[in-house]
């Protein structure tokens, strides 16, 4: 579904990423881990089109998109969530989802119902998919941190993506919400979406991912099944002092 071929990124004389080749297939979840500053977010930015790589290629659904904009990639079936919240706090959960559905369809944006606006059923089904049925009228600012994360996921799913990139979808949420989000993301993968997920909650990544890629100092240190990766000596060295 999405492939990075020998991707490198240099900025201001620093080699941030070097020779990264990774692929994520339909219905597969690739966990991307690595110590702080390893290059995980930079890599996701390159996959999504926020950043152009200095070398290498990105192929999305069989078509090269290395120089395609983020908007074009979104139209080709790629969706992503960001490390920081992208919600409109003064709008309700349903209105936030409505905007995402409209944006996905290339419609004029309006959080309010009107001609050509996203159907309430579509919004409700997205909120149900992230286990927030009946929360459409709650203001985003009144949602718990975990529910905000779920709402962001609903918005990322509004375009019915083939590829979903998640950058720390569980950052700062409670243990209970981590479990809920884990289940939801697992269901998204099981529905056939190719998911690449950067996440610091190691037990989540190791429990959920089909394969895990470890970045370290901008290089791909290891990639494979979770148990193979955690048993890799170089990976253990990279995480020295941290629990794996
Ligand atoms: N636009 C930029 N210009 C210069 N350096 C950058 C830029 N973006 C990222 N970097 C540097 O690239 C390195 C990798 O950053 P990146 O945010 O991708 O790491 P990360 O693995 O996502 O880290 P974290 O786990 O802390 O989020 C860091 O040293 C960072 O300072």
Automatic annotation (TrEMBL):
Name listed for the protein in its UniProt record: ABC transporter ATP-binding protein
Q: Which GO terms describe its molecular function?
A: ATP binding
Instruction: Keyword check for Plastid, yes or no.
Output: no
The UniProt entry, under CDD domains, shows: ABC_Mj1267_LivG_branched
Residue stretches making up the ABC transporter domain = 2-242
| Record keywords, A-Z | ATP-binding, Nucleotide-binding, Transport
